[in-house]
Amino acid sequence: MEIQTERLLIRPWRDEEAPRLYDMQSRVEVMRWLGDGSPNLMSSVDQAVSRIAFYRLRSLLPPQEIWAVEVRDGSPRDGTVAGTVLLQPLPNGAGECEIGWHLHPDSWGHGYATEAGRAVLEHAWAGGLSEVHAVTHPDNEPSQRICHKLGLRDQGVTERWYGVPMRHYLLSYDEWAGR
């Protein structure tokens, strides 16, 4: 599954992009926001190859997928994988789906996460989802700003899915369609 936006191509990760994934997920400034504990830094390109294979497995039940976000804007960054965007089931949930993103630091501040998030929300609605959740670490203000830009409503802090305090956001299809 591929999704084209004005500046991005949202598509599956490719094996040959493992060095880029490794470069992104071996950085504390990226990984400190992911997961439910201390940062779990990637330690090798081989580990990135395995992660890409894992992403493929997690993408077998559309609309729930994990995509690479490739810049396609004609700029010198054209063809660069900016990061990852995902639509996945929340752990230990009752079928709730989570939207998320993480980008390489060289891709921060360009609006890519917001643009990719909008496209993935459209994909979620087209795939029949009635609501989408997002969870962030309580102090992850950049992701929280993106949640607000996308129209997700702050539901407060919960430990429901990850067993640690996370800020919870929610958006229903009806809210999205009624804008």
Description of the structure:
The chain has 179 residues and is an alpha+beta fold. The chain has one domain: Aminopeptidase, CATH 3.40.630. The chain is built from 6 helices and 8 strands. The strands form 2 sheets. It has a 5-stranded antiparallel beta sheet, sandwiched between helices. It has a 3-stranded antiparallel beta sheet with strand order 6-8-7. A hairpin with a 7-residue loop joins strand 7 and strand 8.
Number of domains: 1
Give me the Rg, rounded. 15 Å
Can you count the helices?
6
The CATH homologous superfamily is named: Gcn5-related N-acetyltransferase (GNAT)
What low-confidence regions span 5 or more consecutive residues with pLDDT below 50?
none
- CATH architecture level-2 label: 3-Layer(aba) Sandwich
Q: Which structural class matches the secondary elements?
A: alpha+beta
Q: H/E series, N to C?
A: EEHHHEEEHEHEEH
What is the CATH level 1 assignment? Alpha Beta
Report the sheet-strand fraction: 25-35%
What is the CA-CA span between the terminal residues?
Answer: 27 Å
Strand adjacency order, main sheet: 1-2-3-4-5
Helical content stands at 25-40%
Strand count, sense and barrel status of the largest sheet are: 5 strands, antiparallel
Shape assignment: globular
On the 0 to 100 scale, the average pLDDT is: 93
Total beta strands: 8
